[in-house]
Amino acid sequence: MTAAVSPAETSDIDIGRLTALADVMLPAAHGMPAVSDVEAVEAYLAQVLSWRDDLRQPLVRAVDALDPTSFTIDRLMALHEEDEDAYVALTSAVAACYYLSPVVRELIGYPGQVAKTYDPYAYTEWVAEGLLDPVVERGPIWREAPE
Amino acid sequence: MTYRADVLIIGAGASGGVAARHLAEHGFDVVCLEQGDWPDRSAFPGTRPDWELAIRKDWAMSPNVRNRPEDYPVVHDESDIEPLMYNAVGGSMIIYAGTWPRMLPSDFRVRTMDDVADDWPIAYRELVPYYDAIDQQIGVSGLAGDPAYPPHDDYPLPPLPLGAAGRRVAEGHNRLGWHWWPEPNAILSAPYDGRRPCVQRGVCTSGCAEGAKASTDLTHWPKAAAAGARLITGARVSRITLGPQGLATGAVWLDRSGVEHHQEADVVILAANAIGTARLLLLSADDRHCPDGLANSSGLVGRRLMMHPFSVVTGWWDDQVEGWQGHFGASITSYQYYESDPDRGFVRGAKWALSPVGGPLNHILPMRAGNEVWGPDHHVLMGRTFGRGASWAIFGEDLPEESNRVELDPERADTHGIPAPRVSYRISDHSRRLMAFQEDRATESLKASGCQETAVASMIPYSGWHLMGTARMGNDPATSVVNSRQQAHDVANLYVADASVFVTSSGVNPTCTITALALRTADLLVQHRSEQKVPA
User: Fold this and answer.
1) Would you tell me which residues 127-146 of chain A have a C-beta closer than 8 angstroms to some C-beta of chain B?
2) How far apart are CA B91 and CA B217, in angstroms?
3) What chain A residue is nearest to B335 in terms of C-alpha separation?
4) How far is A144 from chain B (nearest CA, A)?
5) Chain B residues closer than 8 Å to A96 by CB
6) Do A108 and B360 touch (CB under 8 A)?
7) What's the rounded Cα separation, in Å, for the pair B245 and B52?
8) How far apart are CA B327 and CA A113, in angstroms?
9) How close, in Å, is residue A15 to chain B by CA atoms?
10) Which of B229, B241, B313, B518 has the fewest CB atoms within 10 Å, i.e. is most exposed?
C-alpha cells in the first residue's frame, strides 16, 4: 500500500543530473519557475520515491541514459520509444516533485484536493430560476418499449 | 461436523452485498467468501499529496498494475479495452465514479425495437420497484422528473451541486435545445443513514474517505452482518462443487495461507463480476457433468463480454472553474443522443456524464489520453487549461458478440496457482461509428457552452470498468446461461447475481441495474424458497 512514510533513500540517484534534465523538461518560462528555481527535486524526490518505490530503478536508468548537456525534448521522446518504463518514471518523478512545490501550486492556483461545504438545497434556486424549464417543456425523449 | 449454509455467495461487491443483506434479513443463513479484505478508509489516497501518484500504482484500477495479493491477473493482450476492477468488500464500488443511472425501457427491447442483439427476458417495468428500493438503500442524490426517463419515485436526497462547469454546460444545452439533467449519483448530498455527505474533493475513483460514495461495505454489509450473514475475507474460491444430482453443493476456497477449505451450501450465488464469474464457471468444469464448464450447456459461458467503449471530450474555458474539484460522479448528464435514430448510420446511442478533470498530474501525465507536453510549451498548456476544464465522459452501448469472451489462460495464474482469465475483445465497427458521432456532438456541446478549446480522447483503452454479459439471461437454455430469475438453466441451485447476466449493455453505467437485479434475484429466491431444489 502507498502510505505517507519517511522519505526514502536517494543516494542511488544523481540529484544534480536529474535536476538538469528536469530543467529542460520544465524550464523557467511564461512566468513559471524552472524545477531548479524551486529546488523541487532536492526537496521532494525522497518523498516521491517513498510513495512510489517502483519508480526508482527505471528512474535510475533514465538518468543514466540521458546526457544533461545535450538533452532535448526530442531526446525525451526518443526515450519513450527506447524504454517506456524509464520515460514514465522520469516524467512522473519530475512532474510530481514540481507540482508538490507550494510556490508552483500558488502560481497555478491549485490548493490540492480540498474539502468544501455547500448547501444541498441550493438547487431549488436554479430550479426556481427556470434553468431546467426548456428541458422539461420539450417533453419526454425516452421511447416506449413493448412489454 | 461440516457446516452447511442456506446460501453461499461468492464475492462481497455490489451484487453480493445487496443479495446478502436481503437474504439475511429474510431469515436465510448466509455465508459469503470474498478474496479481498475490508477496505481501510484511512488508507485511501485522496486526502494525501501523493494521490495522483498512488492512482498510477497501488490504487490503479487495473488489477495487473495494482498487483496486490488479493488481485488476480487478467490477460488482455488480445483486447482493445483493459478490464478494470477492485477486489475487496464493496468490490469495484470502492473505485467507481458513483453515477447512478437506471437503464431505459428501450434497453430491454433492442431486438424488437432496433433489430439488433437480443431482447431481455424481463422488462423495465419489472425492475422499477427494485430500482426504487435500491435508491433508498444506497442513498441516491438526484432530482426526479427527468424527461429522458419514465416517471419514477423521487430520490431520497437532493442533487449534488452543479458546479461552475455544470452550470455553463447546462446553459449551453439550453441554447442548443438539447437535453441535460442533474446526474443521479450514489453519493450523499446530505447526511443519510449514519453516513457523512460528499465534500466535493474530486477523488471518488480512488476511494471515498468520507464514506459519502456508496459501496456495499458501507450500505449493505453492516446490515447483513447484523442480520446474521457471515463474511469470510481473504477467501479465494477455486471451484464450485457439484453433487451426484447435478446440484451445486458449495465451493472449494483457499485462505491467505493457501490452505484449502470446502464451504457447503444449499444454494450458491455467484457475484464475482463478469470476468470473475465466467472464470469460476469455467474452472468448475467436471468431466462427468459439465466438461466445458459449469452451467455451460449453451456454450455461452464467457462469451458476449461487453465493456462499453469510452471516450472523453474535454473543453476548456478562458477562466477558472476549479476543474479539479467536484464529485466524480458527474454533475450533469445528457441523453440527447441516447435513443436510436437510424438516420445516423448506427442504432442505439450513448449517455454523457460531465466530470471534473483532476489535478496537475492528471493534466500532463499519460493515463487516459496520453497527453504529453514538455519544455516551455508545458507552462503554456497549463496556463491555458489547468482548472479551466470539464469532460464529457461518454459510454456507448456495446452490442454483444460471441467472439468477445473470457477464457482460462493456459499459462498465467494467480498467487494460488489458479488459472487467470484471458480476455479477447474487439471494439466493433458499429461502436466506432456510434462513438465518432457522439464525440462530434459532445464537442459541439462544449463549444456551445463557451469553451475556447476542446479535445477528444477517443475510445480509451484503460476504461474497462463495466464488465457485462458473460453468462447471459434468457428463456431458452440453448441460447442463454441463466433464466429470468438469474438461476442457471443447468444447475437449479446456482444463481448469478452480477452483470454477467446482462443480455445487452445499454449505454449507461451498470451498477444501479446490477444492484436492482441482485435485489430482485434475492427477493425471488425468498418468495420461491419452498420450491428451491437443494442437494440431499
Assistant:
1) 127, 131-132, 134-136, 138-146
2) 8
3) A141
4) 7
5) 50, 52-53, 361
6) yes
7) 53
8) 11
9) 19
10) B241
**Neighbour count for residue B255 (Cβ, 10 Å):** 15
ipTM of the predicted structure? Answer: 0.94
Q: Count of CB atoms within 10 A of residue B277's CB?
A: 28
Cβ distance A108 to B386 less than 8 Å, yes or no, reads: yes
10-residue block means of pLDDT along chain A (147 residues)? Answer: 60 94 97 98 95 96 97 93 95 96 97 95 97 98 96
Contact call for A144 and B52, based on CB within 8 A: no
Write the secondary structure of B107-161 as one string of H (helix), E (strand) and C (coil). HHCHHHHHCCCCCCCCCHHHHHHHHHHHHHHHCCECCCCCCCCCCCCCCCECCCC
The Cα angle at residue A9 between residues A3 and A15, in degrees rounded to 5: 115
What type of residue is B323? Answer: G
What is the pTM for the complete model shown? 0.96
User: Choosing among B204, B336, B379, which should be mutated to test the A contact, i.e. which has the most A CBs within 10 A?
Assistant: B379
- Picking from A25, A49, A142 by the largest number of B CB atoms within 10 A of its own CB, the best residue to mutate is A142
Contact B182, B332 (CB under 8 A): yes
Whether residues A147 and B203 touch (CB distance < 8 A) is answered with no
With contact defined as beta carbons under 8 Å apart, do B90 and B216 qualify?
Answer: yes
pLDDT at B370 over 50: no
In the predicted structure, residue B197 carries a pLDDT above the cut 70: yes
CA distance B323 to B315: 10
Q: Which chain B residues touch A52 with a CB distance below 8 Å?
A: 50, 53-54, 56-57
How many helices (H) and strands (E) in chain A?
8, 0
Map out the domains of chain A as residue ranges. 7-107
Report the amino acid identity of residue B111: R
User: Tens digits of per-residue pLDDT, B261-320?
Assistant: 999 999 999 999 999 999 999 999 998 889 999 999 999 999 999 999 999 999 999 999
Q: What is the domain extent for residue B443?
A: 4-75+83-531
Rg (CA), chain A: 24
At B94, the amino acid letter reads: I
* Cα–Cα distance for residue pair B283/B6, rounded to 1 Å: 23
CB contact (8 A) between residue A131 and residue B49: no
Q: Cβ separation of A134 and B159 shorter than 8 Å?
A: no
Q: How many domains does chain B have?
A: 1
- Sort out which chain B residues have CB atoms less than 8 A from A136's CB and list them: 145, 147
Nearest to B129 by CA among B464, B463, B517: B517
Whether chain B has a CB inside 8 Å of the CB on A112: the answer is yes
Report helix, strand or coil for B445: helix
Indicate if the pLDDT at residue B500 is higher than 90: yes
Identify which of B43, B54, B387 has the shortest CB distance to residue A109: B387
Please, which residues have CB within 8 angstroms of residue B234's CB and are 6 or more apart in sequence?
Answer: B34, B35, B36, B37, B70, B255, B256
Find the CATH number of the domain harbouring B21: 3.50.50.60
3-state secondary structure of B425: strand
